Amino acid sequence: MTTTSEPDADVVTLLIGQHMEIRDLFAEVQSSTGEQRTDAFARLVRLLAVHETAEEIVVHPATRRSVDGGDAIVEDRLAEEEHAKEQLAHLESIGTEDPSFPEKLARLREAVLQHAHHEEAYEFRYLRQHHDPEQLRRMAALVQAAERMAPTHPHPSTQSATANLVAGPAVALFDRVKDAMHSALSDDRK
Protein backbone atom coordinates (compact mmCIF):
# COMPACT_ATOMS: atom_id res chain seq x y z
CA MET A 1 0.00 0.00 0.00
CA THR A 2 1.45 3.35 -0.97
CA THR A 3 -0.16 5.77 1.41
CA THR A 4 3.01 7.72 1.92
CA SER A 5 3.12 11.34 0.97
CA GLU A 6 5.54 14.15 0.48
CA PRO A 7 6.91 15.44 3.81
CA ASP A 8 4.97 18.70 3.51
CA ALA A 9 1.76 17.23 2.04
CA ASP A 10 -1.44 18.27 3.67
CA VAL A 11 -4.34 15.99 4.54
CA VAL A 12 -6.33 16.89 1.43
CA THR A 13 -3.41 16.13 -0.89
CA LEU A 14 -2.77 12.85 0.94
CA LEU A 15 -6.40 11.69 0.75
CA ILE A 16 -6.90 12.73 -2.87
CA GLY A 17 -3.75 10.77 -3.70
CA GLN A 18 -5.28 7.76 -1.99
CA HIS A 19 -8.49 8.26 -3.97
CA MET A 20 -6.40 8.05 -7.14
CA GLU A 21 -4.70 4.90 -5.86
CA ILE A 22 -8.13 3.40 -5.10
CA ARG A 23 -9.28 4.15 -8.67
CA ASP A 24 -6.14 2.44 -10.00
CA LEU A 25 -6.66 -0.60 -7.79
CA PHE A 26 -10.25 -0.98 -8.96
CA ALA A 27 -8.99 -0.96 -12.56
CA GLU A 28 -6.33 -3.54 -11.69
CA VAL A 29 -8.88 -5.84 -10.02
CA GLN A 30 -11.30 -5.49 -12.92
CA SER A 31 -8.66 -6.23 -15.56
CA SER A 32 -6.96 -9.18 -13.87
CA THR A 33 -7.88 -12.79 -13.19
CA GLY A 34 -6.89 -15.60 -10.88
CA GLU A 35 -4.20 -15.00 -8.31
CA GLN A 36 -3.43 -11.50 -9.65
CA ARG A 37 -7.07 -10.49 -9.12
CA THR A 38 -7.07 -11.96 -5.62
CA ASP A 39 -3.87 -10.08 -4.74
CA ALA A 40 -5.11 -6.78 -6.21
CA PHE A 41 -8.45 -7.15 -4.43
CA ALA A 42 -6.68 -7.80 -1.09
CA ARG A 43 -4.70 -4.58 -1.57
CA LEU A 44 -7.90 -2.70 -2.45
CA VAL A 45 -9.71 -4.04 0.63
CA ARG A 46 -6.83 -3.02 2.87
CA LEU A 47 -6.52 0.48 1.41
CA LEU A 48 -10.27 1.12 1.59
CA ALA A 49 -10.45 -0.13 5.19
CA VAL A 50 -7.55 1.94 6.55
CA HIS A 51 -8.46 4.99 4.47
CA GLU A 52 -12.05 5.14 5.70
CA THR A 53 -11.08 4.46 9.31
CA ALA A 54 -8.55 7.30 9.27
CA GLU A 55 -11.12 9.67 7.76
CA GLU A 56 -13.61 8.67 10.47
CA ILE A 57 -11.04 9.34 13.21
CA VAL A 58 -9.41 12.52 11.89
CA VAL A 59 -11.22 14.18 8.98
CA HIS A 60 -14.89 13.84 9.87
CA PRO A 61 -14.47 15.25 13.42
CA ALA A 62 -12.56 18.22 11.99
CA THR A 63 -15.37 18.81 9.49
CA ARG A 64 -18.01 18.63 12.22
CA ARG A 65 -16.09 21.19 14.33
CA SER A 66 -15.06 23.69 11.70
CA VAL A 67 -17.48 23.67 8.78
CA ASP A 68 -20.95 25.22 8.81
CA GLY A 69 -23.31 22.33 8.23
CA GLY A 70 -20.46 19.94 9.00
CA ASP A 71 -22.68 17.48 10.84
CA ALA A 72 -24.90 17.01 7.78
CA ILE A 73 -21.88 16.68 5.47
CA VAL A 74 -20.35 14.02 7.70
CA GLU A 75 -23.59 12.11 8.18
CA ASP A 76 -24.02 11.88 4.40
CA ARG A 77 -20.43 10.60 4.02
CA LEU A 78 -20.89 8.07 6.84
CA ALA A 79 -24.02 6.68 5.18
CA GLU A 80 -22.07 6.25 1.93
CA GLU A 81 -19.17 4.64 3.81
CA GLU A 82 -21.46 2.20 5.62
CA HIS A 83 -23.04 1.12 2.34
CA ALA A 84 -19.61 0.62 0.75
CA LYS A 85 -18.32 -1.31 3.78
CA GLU A 86 -21.28 -3.68 3.54
CA GLN A 87 -20.66 -4.23 -0.17
CA LEU A 88 -16.93 -4.71 0.38
CA ALA A 89 -17.46 -7.18 3.22
CA HIS A 90 -19.86 -9.15 1.01
CA LEU A 91 -17.38 -9.21 -1.86
CA GLU A 92 -14.65 -10.34 0.48
CA SER A 93 -16.88 -13.15 1.76
CA ILE A 94 -17.76 -14.47 -1.72
CA GLY A 95 -14.23 -14.21 -3.08
CA THR A 96 -12.88 -13.11 -6.43
CA GLU A 97 -13.73 -16.38 -8.21
CA ASP A 98 -17.47 -16.11 -7.56
CA PRO A 99 -19.36 -15.61 -10.85
CA SER A 100 -21.15 -12.55 -9.44
CA PHE A 101 -17.89 -10.88 -8.33
CA PRO A 102 -17.29 -8.71 -11.45
CA GLU A 103 -20.81 -7.26 -11.44
CA LYS A 104 -20.78 -6.62 -7.69
CA LEU A 105 -17.30 -5.13 -7.91
CA ALA A 106 -18.51 -2.72 -10.61
CA ARG A 107 -21.36 -1.58 -8.31
CA LEU A 108 -18.93 -1.11 -5.43
CA ARG A 109 -16.55 0.82 -7.68
CA GLU A 110 -19.33 3.20 -8.69
CA ALA A 111 -20.37 3.75 -5.06
CA VAL A 112 -16.79 4.30 -3.86
CA LEU A 113 -15.88 6.69 -6.66
CA GLN A 114 -19.09 8.67 -6.09
CA HIS A 115 -18.25 8.80 -2.38
CA ALA A 116 -14.72 10.02 -3.14
CA HIS A 117 -16.16 12.75 -5.38
CA HIS A 118 -18.53 13.83 -2.59
CA GLU A 119 -15.66 13.98 -0.08
CA GLU A 120 -13.56 16.07 -2.41
CA ALA A 121 -16.43 18.42 -3.32
CA TYR A 122 -18.27 18.73 -0.01
CA GLU A 123 -15.70 18.07 2.67
CA PHE A 124 -12.08 18.46 1.59
CA ARG A 125 -12.44 21.87 -0.01
CA TYR A 126 -13.95 23.23 3.19
CA LEU A 127 -11.09 21.80 5.23
CA ARG A 128 -8.69 23.90 3.15
CA GLN A 129 -10.87 26.98 3.70
CA HIS A 130 -11.10 26.54 7.47
CA HIS A 131 -7.63 25.26 8.39
CA ASP A 132 -4.26 26.81 7.83
CA PRO A 133 -1.52 24.88 5.98
CA GLU A 134 0.21 23.79 9.19
CA GLN A 135 -3.04 22.38 10.62
CA LEU A 136 -3.61 20.48 7.38
CA ARG A 137 -0.06 19.04 7.53
CA ARG A 138 -0.63 17.93 11.13
CA MET A 139 -3.91 16.32 10.09
CA ALA A 140 -2.02 14.40 7.36
CA ALA A 141 0.35 13.04 10.02
CA LEU A 142 -2.64 12.07 12.17
CA VAL A 143 -4.28 10.29 9.22
CA GLN A 144 -1.08 8.33 8.58
CA ALA A 145 -0.84 7.38 12.27
CA ALA A 146 -4.49 6.29 12.29
CA GLU A 147 -3.90 4.18 9.18
CA ARG A 148 -1.06 2.33 10.90
CA MET A 149 -3.43 1.20 13.68
CA ALA A 150 -6.59 0.79 11.57
CA PRO A 151 -8.36 -2.46 10.78
CA THR A 152 -7.37 -3.88 7.39
CA HIS A 153 -10.80 -5.28 6.52
CA PRO A 154 -14.23 -3.64 6.40
CA HIS A 155 -16.23 -3.61 9.62
CA PRO A 156 -19.70 -2.21 8.90
CA SER A 157 -21.30 -0.29 11.78
CA THR A 158 -17.91 0.88 13.11
CA GLN A 159 -17.88 4.36 11.64
CA SER A 160 -17.61 6.93 14.37
CA ALA A 161 -14.36 8.30 15.70
CA THR A 162 -15.22 6.97 19.15
CA ALA A 163 -16.10 3.47 17.90
CA ASN A 164 -12.91 3.33 15.86
CA LEU A 165 -10.76 4.50 18.76
CA VAL A 166 -12.34 2.02 21.18
CA ALA A 167 -12.66 -1.05 18.96
CA GLY A 168 -10.10 -0.18 16.31
CA PRO A 169 -6.89 -1.42 17.94
CA ALA A 170 -8.33 -4.84 18.86
CA VAL A 171 -10.00 -5.26 15.48
CA ALA A 172 -6.86 -4.07 13.71
CA LEU A 173 -4.74 -6.60 15.60
CA PHE A 174 -7.18 -9.37 14.66
CA ASP A 175 -7.16 -8.24 11.01
CA ARG A 176 -3.37 -8.07 10.87
CA VAL A 177 -3.01 -11.58 12.37
CA LYS A 178 -5.58 -12.81 9.84
CA ASP A 179 -3.62 -11.13 7.02
CA ALA A 180 -0.34 -12.68 8.21
CA MET A 181 -1.92 -16.15 8.39
CA HIS A 182 -3.40 -15.75 4.90
CA SER A 183 -0.04 -14.62 3.56
CA ALA A 184 1.78 -17.53 5.19
CA LEU A 185 -0.74 -20.00 3.80
CA SER A 186 -0.43 -18.45 0.34
CA ASP A 187 3.38 -18.72 0.51
CA ASP A 188 3.09 -22.40 1.47
CA ARG A 189 1.05 -23.12 -1.67
CA LYS A 190 3.75 -21.74 -3.98
Multimerization status: single chain
Q: Can you give the helix content as a percent range?
A: over 70%
Distance between the termini: 22 Å
State which percent range the strand residues make up.
under 5%
Task: Provide an overview of this structure.
The chain has 190 residues and is mainly α. Helices cover 82% and strands 0% of the residues. It has helices spanning 11-31, 34-66, 70-94, 101-130, 133-149, 161-189.
Summary, kept brief:
82% of the residues lie in helices and 0% in strands. By secondary structure, it is mostly helical.
What are the SSEs and their pairings?
Layout: H1 11-31, H2 34-66, H3 70-94, H4 101-130, H5 133-149, H6 161-189
Helix pairs in contact: 1-2, 1-4, 1-5, 2-3, 2-4, 2-5, 2-6, 3-4
What are its keywords?
190 residues, 6 helices, globular, mainly alpha
